[in-house]
Specification:
Layout: E1 3-7, E2 20-31, E3 34-44, E4 59-65, E5 70-76, H1 84-98, E6 102-103, E7 109-110, E8 113-118, E9 123-128, E10 155-158, H2 162-166, E11 172-173, E12 184-187, E13 200-204, E14 217-221, E15 230-233, E16 241-242, E17 246-256, E18 270-278
Antiparallel strand pairs: 1-18, 2-17, 3-15, 3-16, 3-18, 4-5, 4-10, 6-7, 8-9, 9-12, 10-11, 13-14, 13-17
């Protein structure tokens, strides 16, 4: 029967963003003709879809008329797991911090930019609105920067990498509407990649899979659950990978994104169970 090896939070390498784990054998082990298979992966769907590194997709900017002409403001999103509503909320949070908003007569904040999910068209919609140059009755301008000097729409610029989340070309800038003083709306031109890493590759240090790049890939984890919930992945059939012959004192596994770079996993709670069998005495078994 195969032997079981279990990786848990205790095996995570410090400073690895929870993507690298090492199992230390009590004593050196010789693998002469052995294979390894993933039996089970339990973890939480908590790998970031926006971060400063390695994705470098956490920044965009908007231009707003503060009454003294157009001013460009940067939006820097903290590393985390975001959907489109979350990104829009952070944009509004930043606009409040920059004072680029108004408050209407019923106490609601008024913004001139928004990102919306359009599920019917599988797209992200950007709306820009013409800025007011005078306050309607009952409205307030808390920061003094909310009114424009001319009736123009606020604009947003989507730099490389962040543009992929919304589904636009790199460097896209929303234009002014062809008809002044109207709302401008635009939809994604390509499929949005809100989660750049919908699947994770699991790699192992002592594997040489001649059919995979990199050759250390032994499994792929694809969540079928909501962000923040538990991923319980158990293969229907074991996929055995031949271990390189040699003597080992440890096994090292790592989770990679679809770009084959290490990923940032927020929740360290995980359990990865591997099976190791001696090919000289074992036969294939199914879960």
């Amino acid at each position: 029967m195969p032997s079981t090896i279990t990786f848990t939070q205790r095996n995570i390498v410090a400073g690895s963003n929870n993507n690298t784990l090492i199992y230390q054998f009590p004593s050196s082990v010789n693998f002469a003709d052995h294979s390894v298979a993933v039996a089970q992966v339990n973890m939480f769907y908590s790998w970031t879809n926006i971060n400063a590194s390695p994705l470098n997709n956490n920044k965009f900017s908007y231009t707003y008329d503060t009454g003294a002409g157009a001013v460009n403001f940067d939006v820097v999103i903290p590393d985390g797991v975001y959907d489109i509503a979350d990104i829009n909320n952070f944009l509004q949070f930043t606009m409040i911090a920059n004072g680029t908003y108004l408050v209407n007569d019923v106490g609601q904040n008024v913004y001139y930019l928004e990102f919306l999910l359009n599920p019917t068209l599988y797209a992200i919609q950007i709306n820009t609105y013409p800025q007011l140059t005078a306050l309607p009755v009952g409205w307030t301008n808390p920061s003094g920067l909310g009114l424009g000097s001319a009736t123009t729409n606020a604009t947003v610029t989507l730099p490389a990498n962040f543009n992929l989340i919304l589904g636009f070309i790199a460097g896209y800038v929303t234009p002014q509407p062809t008809v002044p003083n109207t709302v401008f709306s635009v939809l994604s031109t390509v499929a949005p990649q809100v989660q750049p890493n919908p699947s994770l590759f699991l790699t192992m240090n002592c594997i040489q899979n001649i059919y995979a790049i990199p050759s250390s890939i032994i499994y792929a984890v694809t969540p079928v659950t909501a962000t923040g919930t538990q991923v319980a992945d158990r293969p229907y059939q074991y996929s055995w990978n031949k271990l390189l012959s040699g003597t080992y004192n440890q096994l090292r596994i790592q989770f990679l994104g679809t770009d084959l770079a290490g990923i940032n996993i927020l929740d360290p709670n995980m359990t990865i169970i591997l099976l190791i069998r001696d090919n000289r005495v074992a036969s294939d078994i199914a879960p």
